[in-house]
């Protein structure tokens, strides 16, 4: 059975890690699209304009196949990767974590930086409210009016969401249901004479 749940955060949260005078201020923010990333980075740069680095990582999509890391001038692999590592460690997606570093005058070295960015990211997640979300498929169905009773019985029995309804000689409804129920629901609907369905999206 296809998995139809994923873990994310419900709202923004912050964390703070200090090491040898340097402060690593972290913020975790829920996101659902890559287009949201750039404005978030720009806003954080303004809020923490005295910070030397603004490193980040994000993971987007229930399949966790959209991600990126950025070290923003720190030695390669010491910032973005450790941040992403914490996102993966908690099994999260649809999240961006940005860590702004205020330099304290003492170099931390590769291992020190890696630990600092990892810890700052972890604290932001620990301070967040986590939630398990359910994925739904959205389908549009069309069918003749004479099949109305058969359609409505299935929608009720399978607890299927309905919106954008249009009832005429030819009826149209936008349905939504859990991904894991797809095969069963489409199989039942396909038995109704004259009914056609089209996939719209998954979210």
Radius of gyration: 23 Å
Average predicted local confidence, pLDDT:
96
Shape category: elongated
Low-confidence stretches: none
Give the count of structural domains: 2
Count the beta strands.
11
**What fold name stands as the CATH topology of the largest domain?**
Ribosomal Protein S5, domain 2
CATH C-level of the largest domain: Alpha Beta
Estimated structural class: alpha+beta
Percentage of residues in DSSP E strands: 35-45%
Query: What order do the helices and strands follow?
Result: EEEHEEHEHEEHEEHE
Biggest sheet architecture? 5 strands, antiparallel
Physical arrangement of strands within the biggest beta sheet: 2-3-6-4-5
Count of alpha and pi helical runs: 5
Helical content (DSSP H or I, runs of 4+): 25-40%
Write a structural description.
The two termini are 18 Å apart. 28% of the residues lie in helices and 38% in strands. The protein is α+β, with helices and mostly antiparallel strands and 203 residues long. It has 2 domains: 5-133, 2-Layer Sandwich (Ribosomal Protein S5, domain 2), CATH 3.30.230; 136-202, Alpha-Beta Plaits. The strands form 3 sheets. It has a 5-stranded antiparallel beta sheet with strand order 2-3-6-4-5, with helices on both faces. Strands 9-10-8-11 form a 4-stranded antiparallel beta sheet, with helices on one face. A two-stranded antiparallel sheet has the order 1-7. Strand 2 and strand 3 (22-30) form a beta hairpin. The mean pLDDT is 96.
What is shown here, in short?
With 203 residues, the chain is an alpha+beta fold.
